[in-house]
Amino acid sequence: MARGPRKHLKRLNAPSHWMLDKLTGTYAPRPSSGPHKLRECLPLVIFLRNRLKYALTKKEVQSILMQRLVKVDGKVRTDSTYPAGFMDVVTIEKTGENFRLIYDTKGRFTIHKITADEATYKLAKVKRVQFGAKGIPYLVTHDGRTIRYPDPIIKVNDTVRLDLETGKIIEHIKFEVGNIAMITGGRNMGRVGVVTHRERHVGGFDIIHVKDAVDRQFATRLTNVFIIGEGNKPSISLPKGKGVKLTISEERDRRRARAAHQCFVDGAYRGLISEDDVEYPEIIDKAKILDTLRLFTDFK
């Protein structure tokens, strides 16, 4: 019979969006208790070692953190398993880099660099609004912050913009039709679009209909929708792709185009294809492409 909290995590049981391979080891870093859930966070050790490649081992990550070089939301963090999560700002002052943890259209945390000005604030979704002891009103955000005496106009599911230095609300974005949102859960995780309709289901889950930048419509639960700006203008910068999910055929075509372009460049480098052919790929002879592909196949 188990006694006490679990202190380990098997690699096969780790969240898939951490993208850990099966053969490197048996265990994965178990996130510490913090503002984000275990399956919705990214520990600093994975961010620094696996994503940024600033370290090779956890011991190297710990030495970086103990120099107090890494800040999350403006506060120094020395715990290698600290659970950074959605909308958190990770700052590395020695390199002058700022990152915001945000999802790509496959539901994974992407390395999204931001400017120093954008790193001064973050967006937070309001999860609860109620009265505390002595009738003091307060709200709770998605990252566990408790803010007392909020504006009475702020309701549940709205988004607030927080100043990371003071922790105070500097802007309020209402949850309403016509505002741009990012999906934070479900099969549409990471997609960005404008809210077009809200289906209310008493005793069940409200369904939100969203339309993205290429006019593709999809629906998800209310709890998965995170408003990120008024109208169709987001209050934060978006990662590559702007939250538009490609179809399987579009991904295939993009993959083929990228491979063909690399083939042209390598062929020109080896003297098999002229620079004019690389500049105008539509005039390349099919035989040249086959010869180049055959050469690289033999080379490998």
Automatic annotation (TrEMBL):
Note the superkingdom of the native organism: Eukaryota
Which is a GO BP term held by this UniProt record?
Answer: translation
| InterPro entries given in the database record | KOW, Rib_uL2_dom2, Ribosomal_eS4, Ribosomal_eS4_C, Ribosomal_eS4_central_region, Ribosomal_eS4_central_sf, Ribosomal_eS4_KOW, Ribosomal_eS4_N
Q: Which parts of the chain span the membrane according to its record?
A: none
Q: Which UniProt keywords apply?
A: Ribonucleoprotein, Ribosomal protein, RNA-binding, rRNA-binding
Q: Which Gene3D superfamilies match?
A: 2.30.30.30, 2.40.50.740, RNA-binding S4 domain
Instruction: Please name the GO terms that the record assigns under molecular function.
Output: rRNA binding; structural constituent of ribosome
Q: Which Pfam family, any one, appears in the UniProt record?
A: S4
Q: Where is the RNA-binding S4 domain?
A: 42-106
**Stored SMART domains:** KOW, S4
Q: Which residues form the KOW domain?
A: 174-201
One GO cellular component term noted in the UniProt record for this chain = cytosolic small ribosomal subunit
Family designation:
Belongs to the eukaryotic ribosomal protein eS4 family.
What's the name of the protein?
40S ribosomal protein S4
The protein's organism comes out as Gigaspora margarita
